[in-house]
């Protein structure tokens, strides 16, 4: 029997379902990168606030990366998520996926396809 835990977002107060169960089912939040130090969030966040908080943390980290430091970045060592997350790993442009810098950093190397947001190559000007 799955018991759904209802929590309140510690940021906006919205109630939401936590997916962790005693039977071992994992919550939706496990698809996001584990980038929070436990003391930075009082309790769980709703999906929208969690996605926004992740985006801010990821953007702060990505802004510190240069082509010289990209190969040794910490993102490549994170546990691999099963699902890509729109707005975190990619965005859609004219119906096509455009992978963000974070996606490339998690992969850990350049695929040599000339990706728009590749952190491993110097921009040609």
Automatic annotation (TrEMBL):
Question: What organism is this sequence from?
Answer: Flavobacterium terrae
Mind telling me which Pfam families this protein's record contains? DUF5522
Recorded protein name is Cysteine-rich CWC
Q: Which InterPro entries does the annotation name? A: DUF5522 (IPR040807)
At the highest ranks, the source species' classification is: Bacteria, Pseudomonadati, Bacteroidota, Flavobacteriia, Flavobacteriales
